[in-house]
Hints:
Largest interface: A-B, 33 and 23 residues
Radius of gyration of chain A: 18 Å
Number of strands of chain A: 10
Strand order of the largest sheet of chain B: 1-2
Largest sheet of chain A: 6 strands, mixed
Helix content of chain A: 25-40%
Structural class of chain A: alpha/beta
Order of helices and strands of chain A: EEEHEEHEHHHHEHEHEEHH
Distance between the termini of chain B: 53 Å
Number of helices of chain A: 10
Number of strands of chain B: 4
Oligomer: heterodimer
Number of helices of chain B: 13
Largest sheet of chain B: 2 strands, parallel
Low-confidence stretches of chain A: none
Amino acid sequence: MAHEKIQTENMFLHYGSKLALNDISIQIPEKKVTAFIGPSGCGKSTFLRSLNRMNDLIDGVKIEGKILIDGINIYDNNIDVVTLRKKVGMVFQKSNPFAKSIYENVAYGPRINGVKDKKQLDEIIETALQNAAIWTEVKDRLGDSAMGLSGGQQQRLCIARTLAVNPEIVLMDEPASALDPLSTSKIEELIVQLKEKYTIVIVTHNMQQAARISDLTAFFYLGELIEFDKTKKIFTNPEKKQTEDYITGRFG
Amino acid sequence: MTNKTQKGKRSKSSDSGLIDITQKKFRWSDYLAEKIIRGTAFLSIAIIVLIFFFVFRESLPIFSTAKSSAKTEASAENQATQETYGEVTDTPKAQDVQETYGEVVDISATADSTSEAYTVSAGSGFDDNQTALKSILTKDWVPVSQKPRYGILSLIIGTFKVTIISMLFAAPLAIMAALYTASFAGKRLKEIIKPTIELLAGFPSVVIGFFALMVLASFLQEVFHYDTRLNSFVGGIAMGIAAIPIIFTITEDALTAVPKTFSEASLALGASKWQTAFFVILPAATPGIFAAVLLGVGRVFGETMIALMATGNAAQMGLNPFESVRTLAATIGAEMAEVVFGDTHYNVLFLIGSLLFIFTFILNAIAEFYVKGKLMKRIQGK
């Protein structure tokens, strides 16, 4: 197996007094697509948000255990969260472009990282938009507001925005759940392409999607990691009965 | 199936047992409620419109060339007396009648313009509305005099001067405070700051004016070392204090209303809290902030009490912020009670009232169209 990019050891997460994640230990390899599946409220999104410390924004979240990225515990005191989030980008469930032009949306990340040169910025933006497979659709109207794009385009723009910061890991929280089948398939193709350069962790409710695009799949249930293995194995010959019940739809 | 129809004549048509929907019913409560709501809406609109027409009508005689009002003052009992109002400046008695109103500094200039414009009518009583109309666009506001002049230009300039100063002071403070409260303050702190500042919005302006007159004026004079103690700067700061709570509250609401997904997206891109607040949240709330500032402008524009107490009330044109000024609202407030009913002066005050009305109207129209049109378009991308 490839190098372990993300590693957690006995990780617990509490929302106030409620235990949301119970003893999660997982190794996520570099430059692969890893999918998290499981019913709503099982903690997979919470776990995803822990990986770039977005949970810090929520009151009452307490995390125990270790989350290592490239062998470094990201919850150590000396960690710079801002830099961590540059390294670990995130795409959200609901596309959330800024109320700015398409160009400005993608330029935002590089700008706050100190890229001022217009030419360099143009290059970064073109590359990011191309990598997000939206360049041909928007190249003639970069100055238009991003709010005028369709839902699928907005989501790909958000992916481009994330890529423009040049992260190593891209976390995706149900990136296609609000999109029509055509847009979804575009996003899926994109994800498969992106794994050449990035480590991708995706949360999805759509099991076919997980089966189609991921190399590894983790099944979460009630805050616990039930099973984690190669996608093929999970979907054809799962070890645990709970996993089998869930993927065959006999869950109750 | 049970029959759900009402008793009496309508039950007949529902013999089949189905609910009958073909009979239109007259619902008294709905009818009354609708009429009452509509009536109230039109009443409130009508009241505003009628007030405007009343104010405007009272100012109309100025524009008519006929001598519509007899001027009582013109009886010329005390022809040679020198009228003074406010501080008496020690000037040697000139052959011309020299009026001072507040602190007139540049006496020669006043005298010059007076003699040019009014020599013709000087002999003929000077109560003509036409002369009043002519003098309106001059800078001399000397309404109580043998040769009254109603130059409201200095009042308009004074009002704008005070408004600009107060907004330069209040808007950045209020917006920054709101940004802090909305994006940085902890939950507990926010729960204290917001209601406290909102309470200040109900602070009686006479108290702020009093404070400005007694404390602020002396303090600022000590700091900035200017000559006139009460001036547009002091007035602007005091009115800014009155406007801060309004701007703060609405700005804070606008900032809080910015979707959380915006700040999440920005933070996930590796932006710091400050960068997120300044480059994402603040721009996204621009329409609301713009509206907040305009409301603040409206407040300062119509503010009377603070203007009366803190601006010095001398009608001057200069652009120096440390000169005394007289605002439109303060002029009405100070003079309306002492004016002769139906007199030209009375009409001019009503004209000033109409002007205030029109300015505020234009301001609100700009806010409405700018916010609804341009800004919303930019944000929704249509």
